[in-house]
Specification:
Layout lengths: L17 H7 L8 E5 L2 E5 L1 H13 L8 H12 L1
Antiparallel strand pairs: 1-2
């Protein structure tokens, strides 16, 4: 685990070191997700959050089942 000590800037701003941005796959201007969890702040890229959600859902789906295909089929039946 990498850890650094930062000082809060004007208005509570922090500067994320370039090394951390690179590890997260982030660039200046990207959108990030900031989560307050058990008294800790977690920062992550939306792409990572999407992948994590997909992994969680995949655990409960039978092999070969596609929720997106099922949703598309349901929408077509509604037309």
């Amino acid at each position: 685990m990498k850890q650094i000590k930062l000082k809060l800037g004007e208005g509570g701003q922090i500067i994320i070191p370039p090394e951390f941005l690179q590890i997260l796959g982030l660039e200046v201007g990207d959108t990030i997700i900031l989560r307050l969890e058990d008294g800790k702040i977690r920062i992550f890229a939306p792409q990572k959050a999407i992948r994590k959600a997909q992994e969680l859902v995949r655990e409960y789906l039978p092999e070969g089942r596609s929720l997106s295909d099922e949703l598309i089929a349901e929408r077509r039946l509604e037309d």
